[in-house]
Amino acid sequence: MFEGQPKGLYALALANTGERFGYYTMLAVFALFLRANFGLEPGTAGAIYSTFLGLVYFLPLVGGAMADKFGFGKMVTIGIFVMFAGYLLLSLPLGGDTFALIVMALSLLLIGFGTGLFKGNLQVMVGDLYNEKKYADKRDSGFSIFYMAINIGALFAPTAAVKIMEWAQTDLGYSVNDSYHFAFAVACASLILSIAIYYFTRSTFRHVEGGTKKAGEEAVVEDLPASENKARIVALCLVFAVVIFFWMAFHQNGLTLTYFADEFTEKTSTGVQSMAFNVWNLVTIIIMVYALFSVFQSKKGSNKLISGLILLAGAAFLYWQYTGVEGEVAVSAPIFQQFNPFYVVALTPVSLAIFGALAKKGKEPSAPRKIALGMIIAAVGFAVMAYGSFGLPTPEAQKALGEGGEFVSANWLISTYLVLTFAELLLSPMGISFVSKVAPPKLKGMMMGGWFVATALGNMLVSVGGFLWGGIDLWIVWTVFIVLCLLSAVFMFAMMKRLEKVC
To answer: With respect to CATH, is domain 7-203+239-267+331-501 assigned 1.10.10.10?
Structure first.
């Protein structure tokens, strides 16, 4: 899995980890902040949330076009500083009046534009690391590792958001509404870490930054016949069309799934289940998964022994944690968002092992086929939610019932995040890898931007869930996403021959 990868991969992945930690710390509480601080209705908060996500994922198209002209590294650097300014404004506790709303809008614009310069261009640089022949067959696994690193940052984000808000309230005496801004301030600190990692490790990826040609020199970029360029662009656009509906469904994790956690999920947990809400237990499980793989994959006996000892230490730590469980543990809605990145990090080696074994047999599915399968699995994830929501009151009725409402086990959400993560692992890293491989050489930045535009459109449509949230049965809300995911999968399979032709 990690062997034979270019050094620049780990440098760029770590830089992205820092940035994503800050972003997801902010995102973990953002929808709840909009409702609490400004008194917004679920639909209005959902519209702002989805518009911001759309901005974050649309602007990489602009950033990619700029990078094709001025260089990827330069745009990444500028992007970090613009994002920092946005998070700094968002961290200011200005209250809930019109002025505060305007400042928040400005901060979101800055974060969105900065992310547009940073996000897509960093991933183009990762893809270009694999242009060398010796790395070419490592592209898919490289993007899986890169995606895993993103989620390491995201894993700690919900806990960081909850803990720093609790600290601001209990130790510093800030109100609940003002404490949200402390969570936003975490992003500022994480960006400082990102820029430090980027510049201290720059020597490992400087050759893919672009925009470094000497005066009087013309950059020589390979070109393809017009017919082949057209076929590639058409194939990419077909994939982009499907991606829209995946992200529309998947990013309900920050909206309707968070609403569900806040309004319908039991507020406390006991026993083994309560251990899942401690991020350090999740980290221990991740370490144990990697140690287990090392036991089977290591060639040296000493490495196998060390990995075995790590497994035993992890098991002992979890048992010790279990013996210390007493009574009920409070569960806050944002904390559920740690499960998706946990599953991504824990399951990435499993995914790579499965596809590696299939590749050896010559049976590994193509990237487009993986994406289509991911859409089917996403539908299954929302089917779990639909089943778990049967018999529950509508959100409006639940609000009227107050503490007398009906509440369900956290296991429904935990299970849903597991299934959706399987879908994500088939779609997101594979899709990005597909774009980096298929994009015409002269349009790499713009095509990667196109991937994020599709993601942006999907995120704009996330608000559909917010507007559905209210007077209709929950199982109907989830069924909307089931149908959209299945229709997208059918479309993908119908176009499969055309897509696989350019792979």
So the answer is: no
